[in-house]
Amino acid sequence: MGKSDRDWKAKVEKLKAKVAKLRSRLEAAPAASAAKAKAAKPVSPLAPESFPALPSIAGAEFAAVEAGVKYQNRKDVMLVRLAPGTVIAGAFTKSTTRSACVRDCQAKLALKDTAGEGAAIIVNSGNSNAFTGKVGEEAMGAVTGAVAGALNLPVTRVFSSSTGVIGEPLPHEKITAKIPDLVARLDADAVEMAARAIMTTDTFPKGAAATVQGEGGAIHISGIAKGSGMIAPDMATMLVYIFTDAKIAQTSLQKMVSRHVGATFNSITVDSDTSTSDTLLVAATGQSPAAEVKGEVAKAFEAALKGVMLSLAQQVVRDGEGATKFVEVRVSGAASDEDAARAAFAIANSPLVKTAVAGEDPNWGRIVAAIGKSGAAADRDRLTIRFGDILVAEKGWRAPSYREEDGAAYMKQSDLIIAVDLGQGRAKRTVWTCDLTARYVAINADYRS
Amino acid sequence: MGKSDRDWKAKVEKLKAKVAKLRSRLEAAPAASAAKAKAAKPVSPLAPESFPALPSIAGAEFAAVEAGVKYQNRKDVMLVRLAPGTVIAGAFTKSTTRSACVRDCQAKLALKDTAGEGAAIIVNSGNSNAFTGKVGEEAMGAVTGAVAGALNLPVTRVFSSSTGVIGEPLPHEKITAKIPDLVARLDADAVEMAARAIMTTDTFPKGAAATVQGEGGAIHISGIAKGSGMIAPDMATMLVYIFTDAKIAQTSLQKMVSRHVGATFNSITVDSDTSTSDTLLVAATGQSPAAEVKGEVAKAFEAALKGVMLSLAQQVVRDGEGATKFVEVRVSGAASDEDAARAAFAIANSPLVKTAVAGEDPNWGRIVAAIGKSGAAADRDRLTIRFGDILVAEKGWRAPSYREEDGAAYMKQSDLIIAVDLGQGRAKRTVWTCDLTARYVAINADYRS
Description:
2 copies of one chain form a homodimer.
Chain A: H1 5-28, H2 34-40, E1 60-65, E2 77-82, E3 87-92, H3 100-109, E4 119-127, H4 133-151, E5 158-165, H5 172-176, H6 179-185, H7 191-197, E6 206-214, E7 217-226, E8 239-244, H8 250-261, E9 268-269, E10 279-284, H9 295-318, E11 326-334, H10 337-349, H11 351-358, H12 364-374, E12 384-387, E13 390-394, E14 397-398, H13 404-410, E15 415-421, E16 427-434, H14 438-445
Parallel strand pairs in A: 4-5, 8-10, 9-16, 11-15
Antiparallel strand pairs in A: 1-2, 2-4, 3-10, 6-7, 7-8, 11-16, 12-13, 12-15, 13-14
């Protein structure tokens, strides 16, 4: 017995309504599940268009191989050979639980300069070898020892870094087995490949370069970095290697690095979490035809070096986990340098400021609150807050000229400036951060599972 | 012309298949979109089963009304009248941009004790009257002045709080218009209604009580609080009002409050953001039949008061925005009290620790990193980390007895203990926090839009 057309029609209409309802519910659901967003690992929307052309540095050669430390089907170990005469300066995490590699680099840099013998840097991704006790120190020793043997260097001239998961033993034999292969591949032009081999949660490789006219020839600077923030101890340690052919004394180079690390790598924050492995090494091979760096050339070289450091630092923020906005926080009018830093980092680290930026909400009240909690000397009636050029608040209240629509339109940009004047003194500090998005939570809640 | 039954059947089957497909896609999508989650405003999964039965306090009467400050169709202003003889103690946010109400309460508590004349507390939700310049001070003066007039009290005995959005002028005339109505409704048993009137992003009203046997009768303590953290300057300021019929000198009461505010309200953090309006007021009416609090009774009273403070503080964390886990962080073995606090808050505020907890990931490496960045004296080889009773790490590495499955099973609980011994000294600190979820981001990115 068949149904009537009318019955069938009713049934079909009912099902069609159900389909429509389910479709609209599906549309209302968030576009991508956390897992999906993670699997896709899209390049950060704040990434530069492409990796820059880095000049090769006479006296520096690079190689990268697949050692399978943790990742499969990608290069995860890089080696740099630096010619005799190279001097090395550095800066490191201040974490009290810093890794074996960091402690080892610090100890080697404290030795008297043995530049005559050349040097090497070996770096692996996938395992940070941090908080692995004596076993970790032995693993580090095995790797640096093998590099020293293969390149005929004293082990005190072999620097190393490891980045990746904490607390797992480093499978050092996977790395040492590849050292002959690495040595065979050393190539002055392989710097981009090296930049890729040290990536972990990074969505793009980071490079920056500069050229300075020295007396008698050009001086080149090429730097690479990895990191998705200062930030994640697991997979986003910040590692930075800068190479130059400048002829410069180690002490001069170290002074320059120390002078600028504060305004560059120590002025960025993704989530206020400091890595146990953060490492910056700057190597000068001295092979430029230019004369020794001094006088006006030293000034130009130092400015160029700072520029490379700042570019790499900002690229780390632009690759901040889940970031959709790049934010420059400028604090001026502070009573002291310490107050300026406190206020700037309080704003840059405030989850409420960072979520407001993610939501494109010009919520200046949260900036006021962040300043208030910072401990910096401040007075409600002397505060001035600007979004870019837009005066938002002054004299203890919203500025009369401020219109919420202007603030809202400004927040839609991907690069933002939050400028605060405390009206207390003349100290300043600028720091860089990114927004806090649901994707940050998804990446970090799901990381090991 | 009708279709054949077969045609209809085919069509129906096709639609059914579509429905099934859409259903399974919907199931795969995240449970609730941010907007939906926000609209529903479900009660925190960490909330207590119900509001506790609070004893009425002789000499304290409560009233709440709908004034429409910002919210519609809910009570948003509460008034407390306190009988002559009431003494009041307090503790407040240390923010340098604290609100007009906070400054006013602090100034009034600093005056010589005028308990003889009674007192009042008036609180509105929906607008924090913070960062509103002179206009804000005038609004606060208008409200407290009107209450003083209506209750025949000196204005120096009228305390006020405002909680809600920053930087918007407080529509004080909406509040003052309701004062006769509030006065008419004053009722010793309306404390739960008062607890509800001060809620903002709270998902449940917060109350706690205790009774102490005094000499000659019982002494009661009833407290209410609001807050979804220490945290949000906009909508989640922490306000706490505790009432007791104890006979006690103002200076003794203030000392007790000051002694315990550190281990209670100043030991909680949802997102490290401090409000501009945080206020704790403790009022003792002296109307208990019991004799003046002293000796052993004072000890019992102080312990009970601390218990009420701790319960309310923990309820604030249990209502942390987006929270799904309640986390106790215990630090012991620190070299100093300051170090203990630094390490405890570094763990409790670490976005990486908090996202790992949200993801039920026993990621102890992030705890090591948080300790490392805290600045507290620590030594990798002397650290001990436990999840509840499970020994996770010791002597610079994962404990030999630790199995990842045990850690993973532990993290599935809703109440967690992270215990760290620094092995440096004897100082301790315990703090409470919650996890950091995508819902936290959704709530705070969308708040004003």
